[in-house]
Amino acid sequence: MNAQKRLEIFTRLREHNPEPTTELHWSTPFELLTAVLLSAQATDVGVNKATARLFPVANTPQAILDLGIDGLKEHIRTIGLYNTKAENLMKTCRILVEQHGCKVPKTRADLEALPGVGRKTANVILNTAFGEPTIAVDTHIFRVSNRTGLAKGKDVVEVEKKLLRHVPREFLQDAHHWLILHGRYTCVARKPRCGSCVIEDLCEFKDKVDL
Ligand code: SF4
């Protein structure tokens, strides 16, 4: 895909949604970190329901530690894999309290050292909480990037590197959210809604569906 097409794609995505953001509910970096940790293999809607119960009771590392593992599980048991997620969140809170002054660290290395935090989660925190131009390639971004031709790659790291290299600079900060939302609601996995896609004429996917 050439640079002009990429520019046009992001221009249209921006026109369509000028201020894209995550659908997870959060108001502090720690709340965002907690929500993202809980979101693996769960819907944002499900996570938001759980955090709507949890955050009024505990939305700091110390408050989560004070809940204890069983108290934490009570608030998040509607979310898949909640046992493992509760354990990771407790360990993460302990590290934040003991090593980071109860704050979420701002470097990739420190973030990825937290239990349950991988490259994707670190990218979400760096981008959405701290305003860094990172792109967390999830299943939606991977699919959209490969289908459209924005950034073709065999794995998420390759797609991430290509996106960082090729997304026009002015769009880099928000590219992550535009691509996720496009994949979640339009360029869906089974039958992409090409008939109502705002970038249909720019997309290089060979098997478009006229829905
Ligand atoms: S035209 Fe179809 S395949 Fe291409 S981005 Fe739009 S929905 Fe996805």
UniProtKB/TrEMBL annotation:
Q: Which Pfam families match?
A: EndIII_4Fe-2S, HHH, HhH-GPD
Cofactor remark: Binds 1 [4Fe-4S] cluster.
Per the record, the gene is nth
In terms of PROSITE patterns, this protein maps to: ENDONUCLEASE_III_1 (PS00764)
- Name of this chain's protein: Endonuclease III
Record domain HhH-GPD: where: 38-185
Keyword Hydrolase tagged: yes
**Origin superkingdom:** Bacteria
Tell me which UniProt keywords the record has, alphabetically: 4Fe-4S, DNA damage, DNA repair, DNA-binding, Endonuclease, Glycosidase, Hydrolase, Iron, Iron-sulfur, Lyase, Metal-binding, Nuclease
SUPFAM superfamilies from the entry? DNA-glycosylase (SSF48150)
One GO MF term, please? metal ion binding
Enzyme Commission (EC) number: 4.2.99.18
Give the matching InterPro entries.
DNA_glycosylase (IPR011257), Endonuclease3_FeS-loop_motif (IPR003651), Endouclease-III_FeS-bd_BS (IPR004035), HhH-GPD_domain (IPR003265), HhH_base_excis_C (IPR023170), HhH_motif (IPR000445), Nth (IPR005759)
State its role: DNA repair enzyme that has both DNA N-glycosylase activity and AP-lyase activity. The DNA N-glycosylase activity releases various damaged pyrimidines from DNA by cleaving the N-glycosidic bond, leaving an AP (apurinic/apyrimidinic) site. The AP-lyase activity cleaves the phosphodiester bond 3' to the AP site by a beta-elimination, leaving a 3'-terminal unsaturated sugar and a product with a terminal 5'-phosphate.
Q: Which NCBIfam families match?
A: nth
What's the cofactor? [4Fe-4S] cluster
Catalyzed chemical reaction(s): 2'-deoxyribonucleotide-(2'-deoxyribose 5'-phosphate)-2'-deoxyribonucleotide-DNA = a 3'-end 2'-deoxyribonucleotide-(2,3-dehydro-2,3-deoxyribose 5'-phosphate)-DNA + a 5'-end 5'-phospho-2'-deoxyribonucleoside-DNA + H(+)
Which processes are annotated in GO (biological process)?
A: base-excision repair, AP site formation
Name the family the entry cites: Belongs to the Nth/MutY family.
Residues involved in [4Fe-4S] cluster binding: 187, 194, 197, 203
Keyword Phosphoprotein attached:
no
